[in-house]
């Protein structure tokens, strides 16, 4: 200290003035002594010059080190940017004194880049947590470095309304009160559990929970109240045709917070909810379809962000189910290529865990066997149907009914359980199983060798195909026609899968139908669609003959099939067809398209009754397609354009 300098001064030292702190005026001041700073009064320089020197010294300090959480990335970006980096607690404490300009403890992932900006994240209660959130964001409320192109917590897609508005408008526009989880506030109407008040998601989307365990990796935190309405809709409307999750186990796991620690389970739940939002939509609910689509899209995005870079290395049953639900939701969103990719993902995952191998079912509990078997049936049926419709290949090949018959017998023997000496028969699962077995039987009736003939890929252009002959087509027709016939389930443990089939519609007055309305409609329309596809194959292979004794190769056969389908659809409630989503609409369109092809085939035949019957039938199909899903699909227009192209 310089001699003759007073012990106190009324002005603050440069260090305290720079930090805007109270200075005691000492030489050196108490704050500089405590922090071991060089007090500016020891060097007689101008105040402004000294401040510039301090700034230069600070700029020369190394940047605070940031720890890269390799296994816990903050966000994923569509543009492929690197994950955000977050300071370690120790680094954040060390940089406090230097952070008055940069913010509290913010470390940029690219410190040397001019494009790298910093910001302090908003309160989590105001966030829309569409990205996978890191546990530290909840437990320590750390700030996150913003990378250009990323979506922060207070941002959302400008083309998609916030989820809070989505849920609110969805509730306001839908006359259906989604059933809630069983509680004292729920009322029972018929067989449907309806809540007194529809739960609205607070602040829109899946908000990170402050109670999330720190060990959770890439999990999406959402409250059970955000998904229970859609879970209930799924089990109320879709479970009988998609029985691939355990009803009670799903509710228990969600209420216990399994989604906080199991990323595959969280992905499955969000994908299931997305499907429940967009597929089983009744006509009266279609005013809310834009909002449903927006919410389903956000759920699918969140579900995908829960998956890590090595997804598939250790595949689980939940991961396979999630991929299938993604396929179904994307198909309903009119994303056929993306849907096919997810279906391939689900099928390959099912093969990895051995769903198609009977030996993998040994040693499993009855519930595990049943769930795996139902998932296998769903994947095999869906893959084959999609392949027939879109000219794709098939992975689950072979006659599955024969190969998996022993597995089914073992599952059927445990259909009735004994709990505390009380026998419990789970009729809901039994009914769901019957629908799947009927679908599998229908698809197994199609000869795999003639599938290319169905899709016109059996031979090169300008050449004839010798695979599909009248005799072979006759065998396929008999197999499809006999796949649904009058019958009832045989009692006893020796009953196999082939004994579970029926064509009796529940609305026709049958005393003990094996299938409910939704299942019967699905199976019946599928059977008639397969017959139409067989007829089209005969048409493209020049096998049609009006004078033939075989009805299925007559030009009028497609009109007969279309009239039969139309008659049955008019007997069913519209909701029974609408619950199957756009897939049912597409099959009905394909059946009607067969009528157009018959009219065109008979256009040169004077006085052919097929033409007149076909015109009348098509007019009724236009009305039916316009009624389904409120007419908000492209199949009505496509059918009308095909009809007008005939020029008749």
Automatic annotation (TrEMBL):
<feature type="region of interest" description="Disordered">
    <location>
        <begin position="56"/>
        <end position="103"/>
    </location>
</feature>
<feature type="compositionally biased region" description="Basic and acidic residues">
    <location>
        <begin position="68"/>
        <end position="79"/>
    </location>
</feature>
<dbReference type="Pfam" id="PF04082">
    <property type="entry name" value="Fungal_trans"/>
</dbReference>
<dbReference type="GO" id="GO:0003677">
    <property type="term" value="F:DNA binding"/>
</dbReference>
<dbReference type="GO" id="GO:0008270">
    <property type="term" value="F:zinc ion binding"/>
</dbReference>
<protein>
    <recommendedName>
        <fullName>Zn(2)-C6 fungal-type domain-containing protein</fullName>
    </recommendedName>
</protein>
<dbReference type="Pfam" id="PF00172">
    <property type="entry name" value="Zn_clus"/>
</dbReference>
<dbReference type="GO" id="GO:0000981">
    <property type="term" value="F:DNA-binding transcription factor activity, RNA polymerase II-specific"/>
</dbReference>
<dbReference type="InterPro" id="IPR001138">
    <property type="entry name" value="Zn2Cys6_DnaBD"/>
</dbReference>
<dbReference type="GO" id="GO:0006351">
    <property type="term" value="P:DNA-templated transcription"/>
</dbReference>
<dbReference type="InterPro" id="IPR007219">
    <property type="entry name" value="XnlR_reg_dom"/>
</dbReference>
<dbReference type="InterPro" id="IPR050797">
    <property type="entry name" value="Carb_Metab_Trans_Reg"/>
</dbReference>
<keyword id="KW-0539">Nucleus</keyword>
<feature type="domain" description="Zn(2)-C6 fungal-type">
    <location>
        <begin position="12"/>
        <end position="41"/>
    </location>
</feature>
<keyword id="KW-0479">Metal-binding</keyword>
<dbReference type="InterPro" id="IPR036864">
    <property type="entry name" value="Zn2-C6_fun-type_DNA-bd_sf"/>
</dbReference>
């Amino acid at each position: 200290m310089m001699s003759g300098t007073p012990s106190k001064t009324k002005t603050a030292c440069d260090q305290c003035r720079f930090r805007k702190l109270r200075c005691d005026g000492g030489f050196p001041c108490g704050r500089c002594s405590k922090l071991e700073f060089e007090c500016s009064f020891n060097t007689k320089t101008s105040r402004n010059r000294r401040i510039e020197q301090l700034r230069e010294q600070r700029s020369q300090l190394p940047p605070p080190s940031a720890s890269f959480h390799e296994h816990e990335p903050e966000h994923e970006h569509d543009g492929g940017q690197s994950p955000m980096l977050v300071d370690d607690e120790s680094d954040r404490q060390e940089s406090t004194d230097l952070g008055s300009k940069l913010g509290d403890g913010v470390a940029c992932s690219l410190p040397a880049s001019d494009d790298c900006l910093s910001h302090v994240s908003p309160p989590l209660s105001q966030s829309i947590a569409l990205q996978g959130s890191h546990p530290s964001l909840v437990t320590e409320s750390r700030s996150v470095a913003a990378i250009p192109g990323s979506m922060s917590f207070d941002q959302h897609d400008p083309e998609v309304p916030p989820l809070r508005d989505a849920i609110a408008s969805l509730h306001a526009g839908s006359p259906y009160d989604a059933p809630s989880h069983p509680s004292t506030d729920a009322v029972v109407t018929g067989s449907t559990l309806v809540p007194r008040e529809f739960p609205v998601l607070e602040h829109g989307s899946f908000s990170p929970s402050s109670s999330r365990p720190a060990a959770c990796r890439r999990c999406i935190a959402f409250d059970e109240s955000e998904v229970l309405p859609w879970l209930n809709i799924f089990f109320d409307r879709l479970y009988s045709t998609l029985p691939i999750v355990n009803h009670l186990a799903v509710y228990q796991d969600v209420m216990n917070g399994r989604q906080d620690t199991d990323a595959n389970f969280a992905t499955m739940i969000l994908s299931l909810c997305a499907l429940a939002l967009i597929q089983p939509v009744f006509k009266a609910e279609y005013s809310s379809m834009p909002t449903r689509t927006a919410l389903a899209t956000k759920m699918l995005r969140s579900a995908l962000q829960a998956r890590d870079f090595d997804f598939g290395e250790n595949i689980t049953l939940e991961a396979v189910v999630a991929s299938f639900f993604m396929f179904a939701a994307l198909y309903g969103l009119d994303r056929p290529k993306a849907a096919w990719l997810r279906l391939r993902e689900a099928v390959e995952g099912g093969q990895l865990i051995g769903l198609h191998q009977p030996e993998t079912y040994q040693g499993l509990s009855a519930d595990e066997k049943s769930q795996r078997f139902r998932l296998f049936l769903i994947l095999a049926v869906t893959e084959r149907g999609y392949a027939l419709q879109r000219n794709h290949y098939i992975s689950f090949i072979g006659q599955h009914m024969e190969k998996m018959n022993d597995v089914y017998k073992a599952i059927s023997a445990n259909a009735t359980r004994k709990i505390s000496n009380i026998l419990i028969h789970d009729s809901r699962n039994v009914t769901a199983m019957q629908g799947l077995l009927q679908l599998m039987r229908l698809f197994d009736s199609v000869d795999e060798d003639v599938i290319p003939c169905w899709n016109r890929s059996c031979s090169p252009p300008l050449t004839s195909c010798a695979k599909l002959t009248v005799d072979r087509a006759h065998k396929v027709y008999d197999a499809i026609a006999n796949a649904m016939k009058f019958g009832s389930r045989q009692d006893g443990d020796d009953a196999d899968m082939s004994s579970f089939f029926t064509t009796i519609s529940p609305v026709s007055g049958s005393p003990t139908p094996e299938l409910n309305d939704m299942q019967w409609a699905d199976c019946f329309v599928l059977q008639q669609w397969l017959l139409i596809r067989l007829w089209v194959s005969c048409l493209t292979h020049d096998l049609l003959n009006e004078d033939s004794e075989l009805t299925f190769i007559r030009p009028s056969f497609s009109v007969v099939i279309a009239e039969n389908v139309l008659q049955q659809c008019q007997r069913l409630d519209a909701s029974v067809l609408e619950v199957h989503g756009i897939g049912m609409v597409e099959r009905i369109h394909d059946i009607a398209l067969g009528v157009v092809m018959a009219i065109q085939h008979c256009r040169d035949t004077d006085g052919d009754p097929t033409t007149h019957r076909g015109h009348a039938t098509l007019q009724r199909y236009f009305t039916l397609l316009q009624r389904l899903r409120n007419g908000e699909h492209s199949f009505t227009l496509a059918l009308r354009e095909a009809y007008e192209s005939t020029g008749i």
